[in-house]
Amino acid sequence: MDKVTATHMFESLASGIRLDIVRLLVRYGHDGRVAGEIAETLELPRTNLSFHLKTLTQAGLLTVTQEGRYQRYRVNLDAMQELVTYLTENCCAADSDSCALPAALDCAGDTEATAARPVAGRHVR
């Protein structure tokens, strides 16, 4: 992932409503929800919701599938993981002893991966 893509994703999340939409859709995983269900759950006007869904879809955080006359939205878990990876790719490279990120991020616990991570155009050894 590049900086422009990451910035675009973060900009799309810089709204309480859009953050609520993503958090809701994360709960439903691959099943997703149709727009009407999202609007009902979050108590949003459907006209307002469509703007937010379009913004999140254009940023790559949601996918949309046409199902008859409905559109089903799903969170793009791969894109979200890429964003987390982008944020943590140089995790604790300067001081792995003080790393406080969860082990689930595979940060500082994998010495080979940490040693090979580039920092400012060079490899950390």
Automatic annotation (TrEMBL):
Domain of life: Bacteria
Annotated ranges, domain HTH arsR-type: 1-95
PROSITE patterns xref list: HTH_ARSR_2
Membrane spanning stretches: none
Key words of the record: DNA-binding, Transcription, Transcription regulation
UniProt cross-references to Gene3D superfamilies, sorted A to Z: Winged helix-like DNA-binding domain superfamily/Winged helix DNA-binding domain
Molecular function, one GO term: DNA-binding transcription factor activity
The protein's name in its UniProt record: HTH arsR-type domain-containing protein
Organism encoding this protein: Thioalkalivibrio versutus
